[in-house]
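User: Here's a chain of 220 residues. Predict its fold as tokens.
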Amino acid sequence: MVNEAQLVQIIKQAKESDKERKFNQTMEMIMVFKDVDVKKGFAINEIIQLPKKINRPASVCIMATGDMGIKAKKANADRVINEDELTKLGANKRESRKIINKYDFFLADTKLMPTVGKVLGQLLGPRGKMPTPVPFNAPIESFLERFRASIKVRVKGSLSMSCKIGEENMDDLDLAANANAVATTIEKKLPNGNKNIKKIMVKTTMGNIVKLEQVKEKNA
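Assistant: Prediction complete.
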């Protein structure tokens, strides 16, 4: 598998090869797989916590009531939906879709999970956004911190994936650490590990792709 020094190199190249933009571009990582039969149900659905802080954290919506709802608001969750609001969403598919598309992650009080499944399950499921259950008295601040620092990787019926690893104004070493965390996690989900990785690439939002091909096996 690649090491962080190799990742730093292609991240530098991606930044240097792009012209200056008027906004802070996202740094994206792309992985291409090989020798995987996508027709046999190959799929990856992972939430990966990035080790280095990103400038634009993920948005988190919490479905909770009572004490948990109060704590979620105090912890500055991006949105808190109580039980009454949740029930009303069941009759308003348009508003439901707007909310589902707006937030990256959803958390829900375990007591509300049956209602969530009934009201929003058909919309959340296909998008890979079914809420993570939060037990009673769980440290909601810790949940928020973890998910804000995370990304979602979904692969189905494809031999490639792409995801955010940070922004271009981040330090190259930090971006490489995030990229390595993604690569390591995905490698463990592949049938034959790093043997199934054909190439790794990085790019800025509007920049050119920089490739790191022929990924070497460990101890090769």
